[in-house]
Design brief:
- The complex is a heterodimer of chains A (288) and B (338).
- By secondary structure, chain A is mainly alpha-helical.
- Chain A has 12 helices and no strands.
- Chain A has one domain: ABC transporter involved in vitamin B12 uptake, BtuC, CATH 1.10.3470.
- Helix content of chain B is 74%, strand content 0%.
- Chain B has 338 residues and is mainly α.
- Chain B has a single domain, classed as Orthogonal Bundle (ABC transporter involved in vitamin B12 uptake, BtuC).
- Classes of the chains: A mainly alpha (288), B mainly alpha (338).
- At the A-B interface, α4, α9, α11 and α12 of A face α5, α6, α11 and α13 of B.
Chain lengths: 288, 338
């Protein structure tokens, strides 16, 4: 393999991995604060659809990008609000949010554009693709530092491990969880924006294609640390890129097998990485 | 029915009605016209009722399977893949055997159950032996099942007579008998209801079901009482997959009459919502499946008659799930997903 081929492979891996990375950072943040985040898929969908919609009407992709992030943050806020004030079952609520967001985007396509499946082409921020890739990696490093080295990170982790002790130490676990869930929504939404306006210039149904769930897997594989999750997300990106690179080059290997490659790799990794992950102790448990 | 559950149900129903009205108004349709189209589409005649029952059946099998796993404390989101593998094996067996209809249909259902059980058991085995998180493994197995099915129907198992990538048509004698003639409502529905009653009996009245529930509700106590958590994980996932796989077999033998990769438009995922709305109780799940089945077929009619996009129905299902998630707040007991 020539060097240039290797570079293009790595470049593709970064592009494919970044949306997963961004969403997985959101997942780490909310889960460390004690909120299970099944809703990443819905938040990415909301971000991608809202970004395309707003970009279409304002003709300004940057307002679209900001709007996408804001809408996804609102979805994260809704999950956080229901989880903290209504003490809902977070997994059930997350599933509900996923249904609402994917159904809502499909409904919105027909309602606004009067066509099923895909928006018209909208102004995009394709030139910002690489800065966004870099931003994702920097965010992972920054979040790692904040969680492990700063007082606010310690407080956030306390809310996920033992909210009663956190309360006794003068922290408001409900507020902390609400903030974390909102920022998580924003990060997942940025992942959706990356897909809709960074890589492409439209939203189409099924565009997220399970990346929110893959991000959830990255959170768990990455053992609930930002750098760990980011690393796993980029490995998923690399496997996806490999699949493109190998397609058609290896005659005896069916292409459907290559499509399953990232998932088979994850399954094999599960065999090796067994029993070594422990979720935050109070994750998913309503407080008080 | 307890007072609180009735209250939650009432609020859920009102929430759905309000969400549907909003969707209709957003689509410039009078709610009176819209609800009329919806109820006619779901219950208005023989064909409409049959469509509702067909959707109910397709959701009921995987929802019952999901309930088994959830009651055992396993978050199985792999019903879609288990349904697909079950349907694949059922569709393959159905074209390979040459026996009278009754044993053939039994063989098709057993093949579906085996296929689904195998796919579920992979995740169960990973959990039991390696402690692997079942959320990841079942999710990955969904993607792998889709790729595997696509590979097999485009390659080795592709029917020579088929127009597209699909298996051969089942012999006409093996098509499931219909409950209402010339409709998609088949005897798969009573089979699913039978499975629900059997599941309720096993979960509530047998030592086997007790162990499963104990492992789900208080794993540490169960372990100390001598219950093997890994065996429960393996078998709960296998049974969970078996029911989802039977759903695949029912779709193959009852609706498509062959296997192809378009077998399920996400039944395995909607079924998670059905199981949760049914509070993981088999008989309540039957009612939840009927409600969701009516939403699916009524939604299609709404789209045809009143130009309200069918996807609005998924929003409404989401609202229903969200409302029921909040029922602890509304005063009833929460669902036991952990």
């Amino acid at each position: 393999m020539t060097l240039s081929l290797l570079f293009s492979l790595l470049a593709l891996a970064l592009v494919r991995g970044t949306p997963i990375l961004l969403a997985s950072l959101g997942g780490v943040l909310s889960e460390r604060a004690g909120i299970v985040n099944i809703a990443l898929e819905g938040e990415m969908t909301a971000g991608a659809f809202a970004a395309a919609l707003i970009s279409f009407f304002t003709r300004d992709p940057w307002i679209g990008a900001l709007g996408g992030v804001a809408v996804a943050a609102a979805v994260g806020f809704a999950l956080g609000f229901a989880a903290t004030r209504w003490r809902v079952d977070q997994i059930v609520a997350g599933m509900g949010i996923n249904l609402i967001c994917t159904g809502g985007a499909a409904f919105g396509l027909i309602f606004v554009f009067n066509q099923a499946g895909v928006t018209p082409q909208v102004p995009a921020i394709n030139q910002a693709l690489w800065p966004l890739v870099l931003l994702g990696i920097l965010l992972a490093a920054a979040l790692q530092w904040v969680l492990s080295r700063t007082p606010i990170g310690l407080r956030l982790r306390a809310c996920g491990e033992n909210p009663h002790a956190a309360r006794a130490a003068g922290i408001d676990p409900l507020a902390m969880r609400l903030y974390a869930s909102t920022i998580a929504g924003a990060l997942a939404g940025l992942g959706g924006v990356f897909l809709a306006l960074g890589e492409l210039n439209l939203y189409s149904d099924g565009m997220i294609a399970g990346r929110g769930f893959i991000a959830l897997a990255a959170v768990i594989f990455g053992r609930w640390t930002p750098l760990g999750a980011a690393g796993v997300a980029l490995i998923f990106g690399l496997l996806e890129a490999l699949q493109f690179a190998l397609q058609g080059n290896i005659a005896w290997l069916p292409s459907d097998f290559l499509q399953a490659l990232p998932y088979i790799a994850a399954l094999i990794a599960l065999l090796g990485a067994s029993g070594r992950y422990r979720p935050p102790a109070a994750e998913g448990k309503p407080y008080p | 029915m307890k007072h609180e559950s009735a209250k939650a149900l009432l609020i859920g129903t009102l929430g759905v009605a309000a969400a549907m009205s909003l969707a209709m108004i957003a689509s410039h349709v009078s709610p009176i016209v819209g609800f009329n189209a919806f109820f006619y589409g779901a219950f208005g005649g023989k064909q409409e009722i049959a469509e509702t029952l067909a959707s109910t059946t397709a959701l009921l099998f995987p929802a019952l399977g999901i309930a088994i796993a959830f009651r055992a404390g396993l978050f199985n989101i792999g019903a879609e893949g288990q349904l697909l593998v079950g349907g694949l094996l059922a569709g393959w067996i159905g074209t390979r055997i040459d026996v009278p209809p009754a044993p053939a249909i039994a063989a098709i259902f057993i093949a579906g159950a085996l296929g689904g059980a195998l796919w579920g058991a992979i995740a169960g085995w990973l959990k039991a032996t390696r402690g692997a998180n079942e959320v990841i493994s079942t999710l990955m197995l969904n993607f792998i099942a889709a790729s595997l099915a696509l590979y097999l129907v485009t390659g080795p198992l592709r029917a020579p007579d088929a127009a597209g990538p699909e298996l051969s048509l089942l012999p006409h004698a093996y098509w499931l008998p219909t409950l209402l003639s010339h409709t998609r409502a088949t005897i798969a529905l009573p089979i699913a209801l039978l499975a629900a009653f059997a599941l309720r009996y096993v979960l509530d009245r047998t030592w086997y079901g007790y162990r499963l529930r104990a492992a789900g509700e208080a794993p540490e106590a169960a372990r100390r009482a001598g219950i093997s958590l890994s065996r429960v994980a393996l078998w709960a996932m296998a049974w969970s997959g078996a029911l989802a796989g039977m759903g695949g077999a029912a779709l193959v033998a009852g609706e498509l009459h062959r296997f192809n990769t378009q077998l399920s438009p996400g039944y395995g995922f909607i079924a998670i919502a059905v199981a949760l709305v049914g509070g993981l109780e088999p008989l309540a799940i039957c009612l939840a499946a009927l409600a969701f089945g009516a939403l699916e077929s009524g939604g299609l009619a709404l789209q045809a008659a009143a130009a309200v996009p069918k996807d609005a129905i998924h929003v409404i299902e989401g609202v229903l799930v969200f409302a029921l998630a909040a029922r602890r707040y509304l005063g009833a007991r929460g669902t036991a997903t952990r």
